[in-house]
Specification:
8 helices; 6 strands; six-stranded mixed beta sheet; Rossmann fold; alpha/beta; about 210 residues
Length: about 210
């Protein structure tokens, strides 16, 4: 039986952005369906793909609406409207492809331009660490980049499933710790001001 709307404590919108072929669609498929398809069997996203996944945090059920955006330049204007209302954004790069890491600057610019929530929780995810011999972006370099941009950071392998669920869980927990992102204004106003911006982890976690 499908869950009633009342069953959800909140609905959260999460975006996946980054260059083509970094594994965004595979990351989404692994998280929602625990399935992995080889690169040549995954179709390039045209515009935006969309999946829904439940997550329970502290005995409360959250509905995650996860949007997988196309990485190709020609689809950028098509996907810009999907930034609106997002509470969390995952920027994905391929640890074996430096160009995808360098392009994070452009993705941050796009995010800052189109995202309506200026306090949106951001996470950088370095995918394909199973290709360690082909790695060209070190963990230390990526950690420093994440620290400079004030974002969460996780390395993962969609192929082996390593740190995939943990990445989404960490992002969602950080969103929950920021009530202004997902509660209605009148609900936020009822939260004592001294606790409104206090979280159990006040500093971003730069490692997985």
């Amino acid at each position: 039986m499908a869950a009633r709307r009342d069953d959800y404590y909140a609905t959260l919108k999460i975006l996946l952005i980054g260059n083509s072929n970094v594994g965004k669609s595979s990351l989404l498929l692994r998280f929602t369906d625990d399935t992995f398809l080889p690169h040549d069997e995954v179709s390039a996203t045209i515009g935006v793909d969309f999946k829904v996944q439940d997550m329970v945090i502290d005995d409360k059920k959250y509905k995650l609406t996860i949007w997988d955006t196309a990485g190709q330049e020609r689809f950028r204007t098509l996907t810009s409207s999907y930034y609106r209302g997002a509470q969390g954004v995952i920027l994905v790069y391929d640890v074996s492809n430096r160009e995808t890491f360098k392009e994070l600057d452009n993705w941050f610019n796009e995010l800052n331009t189109y995202c309506s929530n200026k306090n949106v929780v951001k996470m950088i995810v370095g995918n394909k660490i199973d290709k360690e011999r082909e790695r060209v972006v070190t963990r230390k370099e990526a950690e420093n980049y994440a620290r400079a941009n004030g974002t969460l950071f996780v390395e993962c392998s969609v192929k082996t499933r390593f740190q995939v669920n943990e990445a989404f869980e960490e992002l969602v927990k950080k969103i929950i710790e920021t009530p202004g992102l997902w509660l209605k204004k009148e609900e936020v106003d009822r939260i004592p001001e001294r606790t409104r911006n206090v979280s159990t982890n006040t500093r971003p976690n730069y490692c997985c």
